[in-house]
Design brief:
It is a single chain. With 217 residues, the chain is α+β, with helices and mostly antiparallel strands. The protein folds into 2 domains: 121 residues, no CATH class; 86 residues, no CATH class. Helix content is 18%, strand content 19%. It is built from 7 helices and 8 strands; from the N terminus they run βαααβββααβββααβ. The protein has a 4-stranded antiparallel beta sheet. The protein has a 4-stranded antiparallel beta sheet with strand order 3-2-6-8, with no helix packed on it. It binds 2-acetamido-2-deoxy-beta-D-glucopyranose (3 copies). It is found in: Membrane. Its main location: membrane. Belongs to the CDC50/LEM3 family.
Length: 217
């Protein structure tokens, strides 16, 4: 077994659309940011700009997973999960979240307002647009040597509401990064099938539809 196990989330039946929001806002300097916004998901009711704006950011995934093996908590590294080019060119190092999730309907996770967007890698990963309604996103890396047949217990905080759009979500563990290609999902669908036979066990047993919260063993 390789040293790094990648944990992916797969969301079915969700279309991430770019909507009334320009990427420019993510990299713009603060002064420009104040003026360069649209209506809709870009502003609060008081017309204050929302940063990051748009439906995709708003819908950022917010389940959390903890992994336990042999009674030890496995560290999940959630850094270096985003593409370097996304981080450097599309997300400002001097742009901080502002007014995020302050509208009536909360679409997903919250962001730490004291970290610039460039350091919020789960956001960067989430904002890489997906071409298909089923997509996968890297959740984190488990940098621990696991042996074949190791049992992993996963503690799920089931926050993310996929029922409202009739979607499902899955968690997949894989030793393959799937990060190399331009479009990881299309390019590596067969690798995903390959990962099903990993010695970690059958990931379908990690998938869930309707059990809110709790533990999957
Ligand atoms: C693992 O983390 C949980 C909280 O998430 C904590 O309650 C527990 O004591 C930790 N276990 C070990 C073995 O560190
Ligand atoms: C998580 O996202 C859901 C929407 O899917 C939202 O209703 C909920 O308030 C969010 N919870 C947290 C803790 O961010
Ligand atoms: C937000 O980020 C700051 C700076 O890294 C950190 O000190 C703080 O604990 C974080 N807050 C939360 C709620 O994670």
């Amino acid at each position: 077994m390789g040293k790094v196990v990648f944990a992916f989330i797969i969301v079915h039946n969700m279309i991430l659309v770019l909507f009334s929001c320009r990427y420019g806002i993510l990299t713009a300097r603060t002064s420009r940011m104040e003026t360069d916004f649209n209506t809709g998901m870009d502003t609060t009711k008081e017309k204050q700009p929302i940063v990051p704006c748009g439906l995709i950011a708003w819908s950022i995934f917010n389940d959390t997973y903890k992994f336990v093996s042999k009674n030890k908590n496995l560290t999940v590294n959630r850094k270096d999960i985003a593409w370097g080019s996304d981080r450097r060119f599309r997300f400002g190092s001097d742009v901080y979240p502002k007014n995020f999730q302050r509208r009536d309907l909360i679409g997903g996770g919250h962001l730490n307002e004291s970290l610039p967007l460039r350091q919020q890698e789960d956001l960067i990963v989430w904002m890489r647009t997906a071409a298909l309604p089923t997509f996968r996103k890297l959740y984190g890396k488990i940098e621990v040597d696991l042996e074949a047949k190791d049992e992993i217990e996963i503690v799920i905080e089931n926050n993310y509401n996929t029922y409202m759009f009739g979607g499902t979500k899955k968690l997949v563990l894989s030793t393959t990064t799937l990060m190399g290609g331009r479009n990881p999902f299309v390019g590596t669908a067969y690798l995903f099938i390959g990962s099903l036979s990993l010695p970690l066990g059958d990931p379908s047993y990690l998938s869930w539809n309707k059990n809110p919260g709790g533990m999957i063993k």
